[in-house]
Design goal:
The structure is a homodimer. Chain A has about 625 residues and is of the alpha+beta class. Chain A contains 13 helices and 23 strands.
């Protein structure tokens, strides 16, 4: 184990990064919100996923290739990437104390033993296209060869960083070296159809110091033309992976043209194409973000991988200058759009994350095979990209908690955790967070530098906390006025034993969307702390909560329910449900002639959106009509 | 020419039909709204479509098959049906006076000469599957063989009825006879995956009197199980074709189980899944009607074929008892959702009919081939089902104007027209409509029975006309109180020279949708007479009219513009446009903290929805926010 080296994005020497990584292995989650999620991932999700990948032939594909048996072209062209993502997850999981890690380690070795012998002598590796060079790179735009290569490289880097072993990394280097002989100026020019290789090549440059990997990443990004994009558009996962890779490239090269282009895209995303859950992808067709304000609730696509991709992107944008707006968006997605992608027990997944659902089966007499059972998470999917992606992210999550910079220490995420690392000047420190976040906004931070040291402690004040307060060793901190949506900078000579207590207010907030979003007019989404809430039919006698009305004049009262959904703060309030859910006599009526809906008063209970669909099929709604809006 | 026999649905002897057809050939459109549409169809659309079908190889496919050349399995499996629909259109177009009819006749003969030699000795005919019996009917659910057969039979019946020739009809009979040897009790049991054959077989039964065709239609419908359906769901075109075929079957057999099932489906459609334009299909995926209230505007699918399919269905439902509710829905779709499918000049078509559009190109850097140019009608589509479907419908439209029954004469549609036919007792009559409908609600009907005759004149009073009035020979008609959404029954002894003047009031009506439709809250659609209106950016300096606000306190004033869009009544009113269309600073804000949109007062002009996108790319919106709703 080499926890020292387990940065998820190693900006240690990146010239255009203000933030430096605190490795995943230096952060220990201690009994709070995320440890439960991560434990389920390690103990159940990752082991199960290996069995699924095996059953789907992901290892067998490599063994066939190594044995010279004809490639399995019946499988998805991107199947290898599922296994690579799982390998990355498994590597990070080894940082855990869980007794399952021994099993995971054995399975990881089994996977590596299957993968490596399949690699061609020239470094190429892909089980779909095999090792006949004449079959390679026929259709860069669709064949996912570079995408798979990227995931291979990322897995290899993670494996090397966690275990110190080189055999996977060396294979990745051989593959990357091969790619530099195929693509580049004077060579093949086509841009990758599914970005991912760019992220991997920049990280491989960081890992090896070999400039040619960075240059190849830059070549691909130039060919895509991302620096000149004016909008964030098209396939959601690809768009966000590409932007993340371009941000990596900027962190190493600093060309302002890239940053401007990325800023335009980020701006377009958060101002016109982002769900309140942090999900992206308003359109099933092409798995696309669609056009501005195209954010249907029930027909949200909001692929789990896309939510993860924006986390990857926001994390990289944060590295540039430590801007809290990126951390705010990262947190929004983390607790909502991304976390909804996995069940509480860590074994079932959503690919698509709607913001409303009727909770029933959907039939089509003409496509009986397309019948949709009531919407629930599944253990896997034919196109199984999301489950191992969630798994690798949860396994690496400790690496997203904090950073250093030349002048100090940054805390991005709040949860019960202990961080042991060193300041830029080498001073070792321990930072311990005591908190019940996200259910309670009080965070006590114990700062233990090995010796007194002057530095700035940057604490993120989320944009949703309008009235945060802070004490230092029990006293008001001079000059420390928390501002929402900023990092609070506390510069002083920190002594072992210093205590900071941050109280983030967590008002229950009713959010409105811009009026240009067609579906949310007259409705509100409810947020408390970083958590977006929803109503579920199961809490309302099976009523269709899509048609619930919220009484805005009755407060929504937070209440922690230890035995519900793994322990959640629910919000109890009042409103109305439809007294009669049968269809209206007429769908369209002259204005003023529409009979008011017949409503029945009801207690309403809201639960965290991420926890929905853990209690069987049920209707669900994030956006709730306000009482006066549409009765 | 045999105009006597050109019923579009021949219920002359149907035991469970109250209405009897007045053939298309007995109705002459005279210089009004529909003649212009129909003339463009005959003079331009139908000839152009033949060239397109030829260019796409639709005729060549038959010639290859006849010549024993291998079948063209590169083409769509349903390509033959495009040609058959065109042949049906061409046959009905021959009823016109247009000089193009000679050309159309020659091309129709060319098509028939290509098709007939390809038919197998056993009667089977399909260019995709060829004449090797071992290739047939492998996958009934997806292969469209029965769908193509249905269109062949329909084309053959139309050709026979219009021209009196038998060669196409005889071929259709051979094909149908063959089908009776393949499907049925004790034979193949699979239901057709795309209904259409059912309509054709019932009509072939009506044409030939051969019960086995009716029985086979019933067998297919029983296998589909439509009588037991509780909802209208799935693929929109299939669902409506199936329901139309089942209605035909009911008209012949009278089993109340069928009528109950159809009533449930119709009810579900009009109360939960119908656009205000009469379009159906809220979901791109599976071209499906989606779930209740799933009616997005910009992402409406609302296929032109689906609108036509509901017209076919409503027409058949009308035959049962002459219920005006079906005629109201037929008219809604006719003037709006269906007519929008073709350009004013008859040569360009929509497959998908959105109710809002941004008027711009849509890009996807990852799928450059999926780039969407600004949304405009096209001359054809790779899957070219809609254009010839519109063409056959417009060509046959005169057959939808009026009916007889044992007790009288029914007028369903209003337009300048002359109808020469006979009452149930054989008395010849001429009925002439003078009107500027749909722009003006005054219709003068001249009734000229050859001799005085007692019968009931049934005049449709549309549901949108709350205060219609009527005079008979210039005097108030005793006992004749028009009721909206009913047929007004005028029973008397009619004399040659009698004149009825019907004044349908055409208030400008703001329609609201049920609050359960997510996208239309706070918005209204505007209707005058049967016409649904929209705003187009081209009339508003290029503004994005999706974000326009209508001032409900300023009347929308109708004004006929002879030189605009072929002559339309526009509605001029007032409201606001966004002063700044750039994205909002934040997409989500705490309730009460959202800054009001900055609006600029503007004159608003509404044009008929069917006529949108005839003046170049432009934003468009049917549903308009009301001033007070979302500022």
């Amino acid at each position: 184990m080499f926890p020292e080296r387990t940065a998820v994005v190693d900006t240690t020497r990146s010239p255009y990064a203000r933030l430096r990584p605190i490795p995943a292995g230096a952060v220990r989650l201690e009994g709070g919100f995320w440890q439960a999620r991560r434990a389920a991932n390690t103990a159940a999700g990752i082991p199960q996923q290996f069995d699924i990948l095996k059953a789907r032939g992901a290892l067998e594909n490599f063994r066939r290739l190594a044995a010279g048996i004809e490639a399995n072209t019946e499988d998805f062209v991107f199947r290898d990437s599922d296994l690579y993502k799982w390998m990355e997850a498994a590597a990070y999981a080894l940082l855990d104390d869980d007794p399952q890690t021994a099993v995971i380690r054995a399975r990881l070795d089994e996977a590596i033993d299957a993968v490596l012998p399949a690699q061609g002598a020239d470094g190429y590796l892909n089980t779909y296209f095999g090792n006949d060079p004449s079959r390679r790179f026929h259709n860069i735009a669709v064949d996912h060869e570079l995408y798979c290569a990227g995931h291979f490289i990322q897995a290899a880097i993670a494996h090397h960083r966690v275990t110190g072993e080189r055999r996977l990394l060396d294979a990745a280097i051989r593959f990357a070296d091969y790619l530099t002989t195929v693509f580049g100026p004077g060579l093949r020019q086509e841009p990758p159809g599914h970005p991912e290789i760019e992220l991997a090549l920049v990280e491989l440059y960081r890992e090896t110091g070999e400039r040619r990997y960075l240059d190849l990443a830059g070549f691909f990004l130039e060919r895509i033309g991302i620096a000149d994009f004016t909008r964030f558009e098209g396939h959601a996962v690809r768009a966000a992976y590409c932007a993340a890779g371009a941000t990596d490239y900027f962190l190493e090269t600093g060309d302002p043209r890239w940053r401007d282009g990325l800023e335009r895209q980020w701006d377009d995303m958060v101002r016109t194409k982002l769900y309140v859950t942090g999900g992206i992808g308003g359109r099933y067709r092409g798995e696309s973000v669609g056009t501005a304000y195209e954010l249907p609730n029930q027909r949200a696509y909001a692929e789990t991988c896309a939510a993860l991709a924006t986390i990857f992107w926001n994390w990289r944008l944060m590295q540039i200058a430590g801007e809290a707006r990126y951390a705010d968006e990262l947190e929004r997605t983390l607790y909502n759009g991304a976390l909804a992608g996995v069940s509480l027990d860590g074994t079932r997944y959503f690919y698509v994350n709607p913001l409303a659902d009727h909770g029933q089966a959907e039939g089509d007499p003409w496509y009986p095979w397309a019948r949709r059972e009531p919407y629930q998470r599944q253990t896997d999917f034919p196109c199984n990209c999301c489950p191992p992606n969630v798994e690798r992210f949860l396994a690496s999550l400790p690496g997203y908690f904090a950073s250093t910079s030349d002048d100090g220490l940054w805390v991005h995420l709040y949860d019960a955790a202990r961080i042991r690392w060193r300041l830029a000047d080498g001073t070792p420190f321990t930072l311990t967070q005591h908190t019940r976040y996200p259910w309670d906004g009080t965070i006590t931070l114990a700062i233990e530098p090995e010796r007194a040291a002057e530095f700035t402690l940057y604490l993120r004040i989320p944009a949703w906390a309008p009235a945060a307060t802070l004490t230092l060793n029990g006293e008001p901190a001079p000059g420390a006025a928390p501002q929402p949506g900023r990092y609070l900078a506390l510069r002083r000579t920190w002594q072992p034993g210093d205590r900071v207590s941050l109280a983030l207010d967590m008002p229950v907030t009713l959010l409105e969307a811009d009026a240009r979003v067609p579906e949310t007019r007259g409705s509100v989404a409810v947020q408390r702390g970083p958590v977006i809430y929803c109503a579920e039919g199961v809490d309302h006698g099976g009523a269709d909560v899509r048609f619930a009305r919220l009484d805005a004049s009755t407060p929504l009262v937070p209440h922690f329910e230890a035995d519900l959904l793994g322990g959640v703060t629910v919000l109890d309030g009042a409103g109305w449900l439809l007294a009669d859910e049968s269809p209206p006599p007429a769908l369209y009526r002259p204005r003023g002639q529409r009979p008011p809906d017949v409503l029945r008063p009801a207690r309403l209970r809201l639960v965290p959106y991420y926890a929905w669909a853990n209690r069987g099929p049920s209707s669900m709604a994030v956006w709730l009509l306000l009482d006066g809006s549409a009765k």
